[in-house]
Amino acid sequence: MGRTLQNTMINLGLQNACDEAVYQLGLDMEELEEIEEDAGLGNGGLGRLAACFLDSMATLGLAAYGYGIRYEYGIFNQKIRDGWQVEEADDWLRHGNPWEKARPEYMLPVHFYGRVEHSASGAKWVDTQVVLALPYDTPVPGYMNNTVNTMRLWSARAPNDFNLRDFNVGDYIQAVLDRNLAENISRVLYPNDNFFEGKELRLKQEYFVVAATLQDIIRRFKASKFGSTESIRTVFDSFPDQVAIQLNDTHPAMAIPELMRIFVDIEKLPWDKAWDITKRTFAYTNHTVLPEALERWPVDLVEKLLPRHLEIIYEINQRHLDHIASLFPNDVDRLRRMSLIEEGGIKRINMAHLCIVGSHAVNGVAKIHSEIVKTQVFEDFAALEPEKFQNKTNGITPRRWLLLCNPGLAELIAEKIGEDYVRDLSQLTKLHEFVDDDLFIREVAKVKQENKVKFALYLEKEYKVKINPSSMFDVHVKRIHEYKRQLMNCLHIITMYNRIRRDPAKLFVPRTVIIGGKAAPGYHMAKMIIKLINAVAQVVNNDPMVGSKLKVIFLENYRVSLAEKVIPATDLSEQISTAGTEASGTGNMKFMLNGALTIGTMDGANVEMAEEAGEENLFIFGMRVEDVTELDKKGYDAQLYYDRLPELKQAVDQIKSGFFSPKDPNLFSDVVNMLFHHDRFKVFADYEAYVKCQEKVSELYLNSKAWTKMVIRNIAAAGKFSSDRTIKEYARDIWHVEPSDLKIPPPNEPRDAGQDKTPNGTAA
């Protein structure tokens, strides 16, 4: 979520008033804002997307709730020591959190372990261990519409009789100390991005948020006029018309068997009716096609922790496979491919398959990704129910990612096209009229230059490196992962360095290359990549032959509040994943909206950015998805490229020989070995095209006016990538609710009785 103070002031229209009031108290608002900790309760794009969605849902007047876990420790703080990443605990609640309100009156029990008893009256889950879920509510204000939604985060608490109720022969002290075991559930965020780690505590976290949330939703449904009761039994027929639940990836997939358990075991609905309601309630968003990221929980673990849920999953699977068998008799391989249970070695539950079968809608997060989901990853399911599969291209909130982080540019745009674009970003197309307006071109360039100077001062203060603010700011910030190919950027840096040293007199367009992002603590290769970048920076930044022509900086502890500083100052945005691996990306959109140009592959939302702006206004290079498929078919041989490209060979040889690690020449042998022998993401295959494309970038940067005109065309084409547009599409195509742009009157004005009606339908 990042910081809340400035975002709240902007959405409430109070920023100027607050700035003035604080100034009169002899304080500086910006200094005050820097004191607030980031709420870093997610890993990367998926978590930040949820935050943008909450802002858009409130701004569109949707009755929507964001549910998650109130981790005591969020994503780790990253320190760089001697070029290596070192993790520190993110004790973000140390000084308290003024934005949250604990709601003990809504505390709910969550059950684990135990066993199942079957009888004539149905199944009963008994002898369980109970953990309490305590909700904390954070307000989510819409933009200037007097709407405030709620983000409800659950914290784990041990019940007061924990370890004291059963046969406890009196180690009272130990029993109280053991309360920590229950409360560990919400202690810490697992720091993996795009990687599945099948740990018991993680599964507990996933079920914990799901079980508490579903009880909360059902309580709210029963309290409403829709949950009409006939002789104490609730009628759930209208449930899917009143409740929509969007599963953000498979992490909350246990919600599907949990809702079935509530309907069948507790509310005593017949299976078929319960299943119909469940399917119409849930929709599933897929966020990745990387096989190592797909959640596949061992059956033995689920059986121990959630025995009733395993039975329900087996029943769902049986009926699902019976249906497939009736359509495709004797096609056993299809049954194996489509089963929720993977046999072979240890039996596992494929959570993506569970989500597809248990939802009425499945979507990818960019056109190209949704196509890959349909035609490759889940092709059997799409063949069966093509109408279930949709696309919803991601977006970003223009409140945080333009107004808040780039007020200079936001104001400049408002002067030209008015202020309405903040709620309707498609209006940015009006900027096309000013592409040839010399004054506007100069003003856009001036705002960028001011942002760069400000960020350069920040860098010099934090990193003690002298930055040339007129150099091109070439920025690559995102989680460190092989598929995102920070290594390819690194090879380009080494290539530029070698060119400068080979011919120091030759014209070279000065660059400041900024790379930042966190590596999962257990991801060895990602940590080696960070070390390599820092080792290269050490050499480049201290070579007198290079001087101010090339500087390399690794940005420590990349997070939302740092993104808000670096993105407005960026000239060139690096979006260079291997085609077919980045589901969407959202950083790409933030850079586009803030006046950077993009160098990128035809991957994720880059494809649609090129479609909107015109491919000639992005620096697109490298293999397309078809080329990657073709190369896989014939076999990728890294050696070929190494032998054919002298500059690539030189760069790789320098890494290999210890040029960047003289004290330990073999330091990067694992990296080099990977690049030659098991590089799934084909860095060498795109190296030549990348370097050539970078030459075109430098050439354009020399012509400031032509560069800025291209920037304006990009900003004018960024309107599609508002999360407001994304959420309108979810609302209409999946949740079946209508966004309302009616501004609720402020609380100090009397309301008409007629305006008190709740709009029909809510999204949860």
From TrEMBL:
Origin: domain of life? Eukaryota
**What InterPro entries is this protein classified in?**
Glycg_phsphrylas, Glyco_trans_35, Pyridoxal_P_attach_site
Q: Which gene encodes it?
A: Pygl
Q: Which residues carry this modification: N6-(pyridoxal phosphate)lysine?
A: 590
Query: What reaction is this protein's catalytic activity?
Result: [(1->4)-alpha-D-glucosyl](n) + phosphate = [(1->4)-alpha-D-glucosyl](n-1) + alpha-D-glucose 1-phosphate
Return any one Pfam family short name.
Answer: Phosphorylase
**What protein name applies here?**
Alpha-1,4 glucan phosphorylase
Cofactor entry: pyridoxal 5'-phosphate
